[in-house]
Structure formats: C-alpha cells, structure tokens
Amino acid sequence: MTALTLSTAAAPGLRADAIVIGVAKGAASRSGGLVVAPGAEAVDKAYDGKLAGVLETLGASGAEGEVTKLPAPAGFKAPLVVAVGLGAEPADAKDGAYDGEALRKAAGVAARSLAGSKKAAFALPLGDAGDIGAVAEGVLLGAYAFDAYKANGKDAKNKKNGKAPLAEAALLGGKPRDKEHKAAIERATAVAEELNRARDLINTPPNDLTPESFAAIASAAGKEHGIKVQVLDEKALTKGGYGGILGVGAGSAAGPRLVKLSYTHSKASKHLALVGKGITYDSGGISLKPAGHNETMKCDMSGAAAVFAAVVAAARLGLQVNVTGWLALAENMPSGTATRPGDVLRMFSGKTVEVLNTDAEGRLVLADALWAASQEEPDAIVDVATLTGAMVLALGNRTFGVMANDDAFRTAIVEAAEEVGEPSWPMPLPEHLRKGMDSPTADIANMGERMGGGLVAGLFLREFVGEGITWAHLDIAGPAFNEGGPFGYTPKGGTGSAVRTLVRLAEVTAAGDLG
Hints:
This protein is an alpha/beta fold. The chain has helices at about 40-45, 50-55, 100-115, 130-140, 180-205, 210-225, 235-240, 245-250, 300-315, 360-375, 390-395, 405-420, 455-460, 500-510; strands at about 5, 20-25, 35, 65-70, 80-90, 120-125, 170, 230, 255-265, 270-280, 320-330, 345, 350-355, 380-385, 400-405, 425, 445, 470-475, 480, 495. The protein has 14 helices and 20 strands. The strands form 4 sheets. It has an 8-stranded mixed beta sheet, sandwiched between helices. Strands 1, 2, 3, 4, 5, 6 and 7 form a 7-stranded mixed beta sheet that branches. It has a 3-stranded mixed beta sheet with strand order 12-13-17. The two termini are about 35 Å apart.
C-alpha cells in the first residue's frame, strides 16, 4: 500500500512528483467563484494570489471529484500541482473546517489520478487529527488497485497493464511528533489495509476463493494478529446440525465452512458479535439465476469479507471490546446433490425451513451463524450481507439498509455509518410481512411476499436471533460491488462496504457510548 508520512515541510521545497491542493465552490455570500482551500497558501502565493483565476481559466469549478493539473510555479521542486475539488465551501472554511468525507473523497480522487507516481505531497485542509485521519484514509483507499491476475501485476518495475499505485504520500501540516496526529495515521492505516484486504477477497475469482481457502486466509490472519480462529468443516457442521449452511453448500464440490474469529481484550466489558454472509459464488442453485445476473456473483461473500476485516482491524487497534466474527461460507451451485425447491432443512436452532427458492440462500447460512452467535449471549449482534435485490431497488447502488429489533441500536449504526462516510438508511421490519413466510410443511419458509422483499429477509433473520439479544441487519447488496467507474476513494469492483461502519461501532462500544 501507499506509504504515509506526516510533514511540516513547506510545499515549495519538498521533493515530490506533485503537490495536491484543495479547491472549492465559493460561498454565495462571497464571490461565489472558485476558492483555494486552506493548506495551499504557499502554492497560491507562488501564483501571486491568482491561482483561483488560473484554475477557473482551465475550467475548474471546485466540484466534488474534479481534478485539474497544471505546471508548478517557478522555484518549486515538484513539477506538478494537482487541484482537487472539495465541493461547496463551508461557512467556517477559514478555520480549516471542511467535512471529513469531502476530504476523504478528494484525497482518494487525487491519489488515483497520481497512479505511477513515486511521491505526492497533500496540502489539503487539516484542521485537526480527524482531518488527518480522513485524508490518510482517502489516500490509502483511493490508491487501491487489484492486479494480481494481470501479467506482471505484482511487479511494479515491469508492469505492463496499467500503472503502479502512488508509492508515497506526505501529508503537509501534519506533525510527526504529535501523539494525536500519529494515532490518526496509525488508525487510518489499520482500517484501510484491512478494508483493502476485504476488497482483494471480493475481487478474487471464485475458482481461487472457495469456502476452504477463505477459511485458510482467516486462520493465517488470526495467527498474525492474535485472534483465535475456529473452523467447522463439513464433518463438524454435520455433527453440529448446521442444516442451513450444509443445505446451501450441498450442490458444490467445494464444501462449506463456518469460521469463528474471536478477538478479546483483557479489560473489555462488552461483547460485540458480527456475522457475515460468505457465499463465495452464487449461481442461484437449482433456482438458477438468468443470464446477466451471475457474472459478478463472486461478490456474494462481501458480508463475510467485511466482518473478517473489521475483526482484524479491531485487533490491530487494540480496542477495549470483545469482538467475535462469524463467517458463514458456502458455494451455491446446482447439481444432483443440491438442495431443491420444496426441500425442508432443519436448522442449527432446531427450527425447520421450507426452501421455496434456492437463490434465497444467504438467509439460510446466516440463520445458522446468527443462532451460533446467540449462544454466547453477546451484548449485540450485527449481520452483514449482500442479501436482496429488493434493497438495491429501494436504496440504489451506494446506500445500505439497516434493520434492527431495537430502534436505538439501529440509530446508533446509522450514526456510526454517517461518521465514517458510508451512506446508510434505517429500514422497518413490518410485522404484517411475517405471515407471508408461514409454511404448511415447516416452521417457516425462506420466501414471503415479493413486495418488500428486503424487509421480508430481515424478518426471516430475526427468527434466528436469541431471545433478548439486541440485533441489527445490514443489507449491503447495493454498495458492496461497484460495476461502474471509480468515484471518490471507491474503486471499480469490490468496495469493502460496511467495514468502516463495523469498526466505528466497535470503537463506540469500547468507549461505552453504545448504551
């Protein structure tokens, strides 16, 4: 990943390939035109205070995600100035108070635009340690590239397919000896590295990422970071009665796994359980997906990737909270041994489920994992899943839905997501939709009413949460995989959606602010 440094050096004398500055749309109360953001004073001075005018001549408006490049002024050791848009100028911009997400996006766009460069100096507005963390995250996430399967993709010196990511970023205005500034860099590095690990897993082709290989990756990470890892294979799952996970994985030659990752802190007083859907490839099973709907189904393990990344990040940060991650891993394939529509599965909880559609498989593996997590009686459980197309229809491709059996907890998750810049939306669990899952054969069916399908799925999952346990469900079907072009610090392909929300939730829990 890109190396991060804090620097008090002045922009003109710093040796780098580029100097990154921020520009914004000026407030209407002022000129209303382009303004140069704090942090770029030395650069503006070198242009005799006319940098905004020069950039406007080049077509810059300060819009979010906009990049304008121009030659550096005489006397600068860096040959290039990169002006990146921050959007609308805030009322208190003179104090450096730009929104953290605006800084994160700007840094990400700039880092991506500088692929192939050895070093860039970021002279963006840094009002406090929070801003440093936002810019650092943006750089590390924006510079991400997945090229493991391209010729010479791992060899930056011989790269034939594209340019290597930005090698180093110096954050100007950051103080290398300031404890808060150093802590902000360390946190951003831990979170971004694990989020990018989740992206790598999501982008890995399904012929290389099976439930077994995913479990092996988790086990290796556990050893590295002091996390206890337990892996249940087919034999153990059969002995334990995990009918949901076994039923989904029955049609594949690659057997299912349930992976438990346990991070504990000696001073922790709270226990947070995270459950992730890990369908390493989803064909739909016997209820086969139509053409055009299965090409990106390697991403159906994004929930498990997010949970895995969040647990490891919590361990790396040493958070004073116990965090247990459950990865429900299976490959959903059609074959002579696959579960059929009409089959009844006996779940780990003892309940029976009539399978009406084998493409509604995520809720089946999650149900077993939720009940397993409930047996430890944690203070709260959060499950994360690319669960329903209905949620994409409801909220689009960039926002995930949040459902819960406790309104205050749902609000806390939405607030955590907002703090870290992940769009989310609180969704209800209407009781009248539960009746649609009544089955004449089993305790419950895995399908209900078509309308409100995302909410129906949430109601199904609620059936497998232990009594009295606070629970929430994050449906990340929309933002988990970006099929369009990159934007902000979000690349094309796997995004790592929900990782930062889960880490922030763990931090809030550790601080005792969750209630």
